[in-house]
Amino acid sequence: MATKSHTPLIVGNWKMNPATLGKARKLFLDVRKEVGRKKMETQVAVAPPFPFLSELQRLSPSQRIGLSAQDVYFESIGAHTGEVSLPMLRSVGVSSVIVGHSERRAAGESDEEIYKDVQAIFKSSLTAIVCVGEQVRDQHGNYFSVVEAQLRSAVRDVPKTKLKQLVVAYEPVWAIGTGDHATPEDVQEMKLFIQKIIADVFDRSAIKKVRVLYGGSVKAKNAQELLTVGTVDGFLIGGASLKAKEFGKIVHTAEAYAKTSV
Ligand code: PGA
Question: CB of 124 within 8 A of CB of 96?
């Protein structure tokens, strides 16, 4: 049996869904019900669109379901039309921020901006969920260098004392929203590779602090294998996070795994 040294983390990335505040409330309440009230080892969070954050904070006063943001701007205030800052996110209960999602990268976000976002997140003591992942899996294994370059660039100046607030999400772009998830064996290989880079950038003890998630067509039916064989510490979930029952099943799969592994 694989060993687990980290608190599992399951994050639902709602992307630009659902269409209205009313629907967001309903989805959140349904997710809350599916996750249940029992004390769990697994941490659960959802990342709704910005306009819904403050209302959802009200629906989860105990923060049992944490709030995550899908993006952030590194400056804290000023003339930056259309941007959202960390102090704003904190003030509506956000505790973690997804950075460098491939859909943001495709919209033009650069490694340098991602670096600045990560720096700003650490200064404000929130958790950064840094997404890395290749576009394609080529035969020559160039995807390793893609992931390595993205990761080194994003985390290079993270203070060693704050590594518990660093989460890396391996999200191969070809697996996102396609139904075609990476094999558990490939996920495990990439997780070990990411840990090797983390150990190289910081030191070996960093591996115990930094969680590695997988994202890309995670569903209730593949979650178990991705955890046990893939040995990741949790998931970043898109499509399946919009179905409360499906999301709840994944959370409970992670929790059952957390309880059985040591
Ligand atoms: P998916 O998305 O679960 O729909 O593949 C994952 C993500 O984009 O984070």
Answer: no
- 213 bridge partner residues: 169
Q: What is the dotted CATH code of the domain comprising 9-260? A: 3.20.20.70
Average pLDDT across each block of 10 residues of the chain; the chain has 262 residues. List them in order. 72 98 98 93 97 95 91 97 98 97 97 97 96 93 96 97 96 94 96 98 97 97 97 98 98 94 66
Cα–Cα distance measured from residue 56 to residue 59, given in angstroms and rounded to the nearest whole number: 5
**Interval between CA 79 and ligand 1 midpoint (Å):** 32
Nearest-atom number in ligand 1 for the CA of 215 is 6
State if pTM tops 0.90: yes
Concatenated DSSP letters for 24-85? HHHHHHHHHHHH-SS--SSEEEEE--GGGHHHHHHH-TT-SEEEEES--BSS-SSS-TT--B
Distance of alpha carbon 234 from alpha carbon 212, whole angstroms: 7
Helix (H) or strand (E) holding 143: helix 142-155
The best mutation among 9, 10, 98, 217 to test binding of ligand 1, ranked by most ligand atoms within 8 Å of the C-beta, falls on 217
Radius of gyration of the chain (CA): 17
| Domain spans, the chain | 9-260
